[in-house]
Amino acid sequence: AAQQRRAVILLDCDFRQRGLSAMLGREPRAGLLEACAQPDRWRDYVDEEEETGLHFIPMARSANPWRSLIDAAGFEALLMRLRGAYDLVVLDCPPALRSADGPVAARMADRCVIVAAWDETPIAALRDTMRVLRARAATGVFVNRVPAGYRFGRLRPT
What we know:
It is a single chain. By secondary structure, this protein is an alpha/beta fold. The chain has helices spanning 19-23, 32-37, 75-85, 101-108, 123-134, and strands at residues 8-12, 47-48, 55-57, 88-92, 111-117, 138-144.
């Protein structure tokens, strides 16, 4: 969407793994939790990916391992401000069954996409995740690494 000139921002909502921040090579001193504490100053926490120009708010390493989205009182206010400034706000969340952070973020999202890996993500985990998230927002599934020979939209060989 960013490459199609839509205003997009991506938030690293995974407090423990911080996968998005690591993938983008960032180790910020301040990030999403600090932006939640000061939602009017959200622009101070936005970073930009060099190649695509994608805006994102990374997750800083927390000194308190028990912090979470549940503690971030300004998260909802931050989302409202970002929705006013961007066409698309994407929340990169932890697995929904691993912690309460994923379902908390899903409650504030318009739509959810579960990302699964072919032959790695158990069907039971997908069912459980759908059950948890469906009550909160419209939910779909995206399956990565589907082998050649399987047609789009089908989970059986052609």
